Structure formats: C-alpha cells, structure tokens
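My main concern about presentation is that the manuscript never shows what a single data entry looks like. An entry of this sort, consisting of the sequence and the corresponding backbone structure tokens, reads as follows:
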Amino acid sequence: MNQLTNVTVRFTDQFVDYKGNPILIQQHKLTALIFVSLYCSTCVEFLPDIATLTEEFPNIEVILFCNGTTDEHDEMINYFNWKFPIVFMEPVEADKRYQITEFPYMMLVNDEALVWKETIEEVDELIVTIKSRGV
C-alpha cells in the first residue's frame, strides 16, 4: 500500500471525457480514478473487473483514464455497458500529472484529498482493501 504526499487531485481540476464533454466530480463523494493502458495485457484483463467494482461499491464514482482511440472507448462502453466517463490519457501524461508508472492503477479521492492509491493486481484483493478502509 502506498501513501502519496506530493500529488493532489483537486475537485477544481477540469476533466474532459474522450468526446470533449466536461466531467463534474461531486464533492463529498468518493471517486475512483482508474488508470489503464490498452498496451498493457494486465490492464486489458482488468477491464471486465471494473463492472465488479461498480457493482460492489455503487457509492463510489468512477472515472477511467485510458489511452484508447475514440472507437475503442465507444466499443468498451457498449460491450461492458459502462455508465462512467472515460478520459483519454497516455501513460506518459499519467506519470507527468500523477506520478503513475505502473498500470492498472487506482486512486481513491474525496474532497481534494487522496484516500488511497495502489497498483491493481487482483480485483478480489482490491475489494478487500477498499472495504478495510471503511468504504
């Protein structure tokens, strides 16, 4: 488990989905920022597990950061029936903005504060970790 001291996610940050629509992050609500790369086989294997997370934790908003094309993002949304936004972001940008160098990766934030961050290995372990945080 990692602690983060030098990265802040502010709710004043402006996120825009891959189609250019603004994403509003709700204050006083947990938000999971999930980072994947479609060039990463572990990330691709993790994609179906995102639905498991949204079912297990309906009180957590999800924003997926992914380096796919517009067509790939559309296909994933339709195939997995995702209801959360996708932000286009290359791994280099994730490293530059958030010091993320391993994928898949998740940051859980609430009211401008980082609650937790970790490289995702197994969805079952991730669920246990989130529950242990009292979510």
